[in-house]
């Protein structure tokens, strides 16, 4: 089938009143961004309260569907045939051919025509269009019966002055809200499975993402860093342009390792990560932090540990995976194409400085007291870490 346009459907939630324009403009922006790398000429327009993508000439259909499938806020994608032939006999033929191609025998057994007539000067009204085109489909597609209540296939026919739009299929979109319609947040992005999924989930709610990665050269390699850059690119396919701050965390980790009780290493390290991430959040205008934590997954993610980590944060911390099992997280990771990258076996800075027996029930005032052992050095170390941070921009 040769489609000339896509009708973009989006959920109505949250887009009433003043927000509607913001929502639609962001959606148009992200549709354009996603289609920029697809072969073809695409023109994204807002028409009569709907968003359309018009194609001029040849284009890559599969590529376009795949690209639109990365845009948050789209609930469905309907490929549309547009004809400028307004003669009723020709319309009957075109509609019957359309149904033959889109709903061949064995795929659908019942249908209804759902005509709309925004162009009021068209000589037939919607009832007549429904009846005439229905009859043409019955004649042209003998396997089809009419069912106006629960049809397998609804054939939408919209008669406009510029042409007739015919569509029936709806390919599900990602849902959610267009990125940028809900402020921004700072993602603590590691090379693991969880944090890319966490960032993706928050972006799905319309939040723009910037990210911070803590590396510890020479204990962590360039390849581990490259893996995080690759994961950031995967998240950015969905969330759009992001800043990635790469913080050299080695000296802070070494100081913690030297001066603090080993069973508290991870928890103290996590608290410094949150502090530094909050610094970049402020710099980037982010309204919250995002982590991939899930209750009980590891020692640093028990309810007690989360309390201690959270205690250093002024901003809200979004933990979208908090109640997820690992398997549920893996399923999303696979769906967003991050999994294969996440499981590449490069060391994580946290796996090198781990204690044999980390505390699982840290007590906040005890941890705070241990941190005082860093008092002489930590201000300088933090200052250097911030000054030497490398920031790269990822995505478009
Ligand atoms: P992930 O799979 O996301 O690495 P994890 O199960 O390994 O998570 P932890 O290592 O305890 O869990 O990290 C918890 C969260 O802290 C991560 O989801 C991430 O948001 C953040 N984090 C951990 N290490 C780093 C790092 N090196 N750089 C940035 N953020 C990190
Ligand atoms: Mg990790």
TrEMBL record:
GO CC annotations, alphabetized: cytosol
CDD domains for this protein: PPase_ThiI, THUMP_ThiI
EC code(s) of this entry: 2.8.1.4
Keywords attached to this entry: ATP-binding, Cytoplasm, Nucleotide-binding, RNA-binding, Thiamine biosynthesis, Transferase, tRNA-binding
Domain THUMP: from-to ranges: 62-170
PROSITE patterns: THUMP
Regions that span the bilayer: none
GO molecular function, one term: ATP binding
SMART domains: THUMP
Subcellular location: Cytoplasm
Residues the entry annotates as binding ATP: 188-189, 213-214, 270, 292, 301
Family (UniProt): Belongs to the ThiI family.
Cited function: Catalyzes the ATP-dependent transfer of a sulfur to tRNA to produce 4-thiouridine in position 8 of tRNAs, which functions as a near-UV photosensor. Also catalyzes the transfer of sulfur to the sulfur carrier protein ThiS, forming ThiS-thiocarboxylate. This is a step in the synthesis of thiazole, in the thiamine biosynthesis pathway. The sulfur is donated as persulfide by IscS.
HAMAP family: ThiI
The protein's name in its UniProt record: Probable tRNA sulfurtransferase
């Amino acid at each position: 089938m040769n489609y000339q346009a896509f009708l973009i459907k989006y959920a109505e939630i949250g887009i009433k009143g003043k927000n509607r324009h913001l929502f639609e403009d962001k959606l148009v922006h992200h549709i354009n961004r996603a289609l920029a790398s697809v072969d073809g000429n695409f023109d994204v327009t807002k028409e009569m309260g709907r968003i359309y993508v018009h194609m001029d000439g040849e284009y890559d259909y599969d590529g376009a569907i795949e690209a639109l499938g990365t845009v948050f806020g789209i609930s469905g994608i309907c490929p549309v045939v547009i004809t400028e032939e307004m003669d009723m006999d020709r319309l009957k033929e075109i509609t019957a051919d359309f149904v033959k191609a889109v709903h061949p025998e064995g795929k659908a057994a019942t249908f209804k025509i759902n005509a709309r007539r925004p162009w009021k000067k068209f000589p037939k009204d919607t009832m007549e269009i429904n009846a005439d085109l229905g009859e043409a489909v019955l004649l042209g597609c003998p396997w089809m019966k009419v069912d106006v209540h629960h049809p397998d296939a609804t054939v939408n026919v919209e008669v406009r002055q510029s042409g007739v739009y015919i569509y029936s299929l709806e390919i599900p979109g990602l849902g959610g809200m267009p990125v940028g319609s809900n402020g921004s947040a700072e993602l603590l992005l590691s090379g693991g499975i969880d944090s890319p999924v966490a960032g993706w989930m928050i972006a799905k709610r319309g939040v723009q993402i910037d990210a911070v990665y803590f590396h510890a050269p020479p204990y962590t390699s360039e390849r581990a860093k490259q893996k995080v850059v690759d994961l950031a690119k995967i998240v950015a396919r969905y969330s759009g342009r992001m800043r990635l701050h790469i913080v050299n965390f080695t000296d802070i980790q070494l100081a913690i390792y030297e001066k603090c009780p080993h069973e508290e290493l991870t928890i103290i390290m996590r608290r410094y990560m949150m502090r530094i991430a909050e610094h970049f959040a402020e710099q980037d205008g982010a309204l919250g932090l995002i982590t991939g934590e899930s209750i009980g997954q590891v020692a640093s993610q028990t309810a007690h540990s989360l309390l201690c980590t959270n205690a250093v944060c002024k901003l809200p911390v979004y933990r979208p995976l908090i109640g997820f099992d690992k398997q549920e997280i893996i399923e999303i990771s696979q769906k967003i194409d991050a999994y294969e990258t996440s499981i590449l076996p490069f060391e994580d800075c946290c796996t090198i400085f781990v204690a044999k027996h980390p505390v699982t029930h840290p007590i906040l005032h005890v941890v705070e007291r241990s941190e005082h052992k860093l008092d002489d050095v930590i201000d300088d170390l933090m200052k250097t870490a911030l000054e030497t941070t490398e920031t790269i921009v990822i995505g478009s």
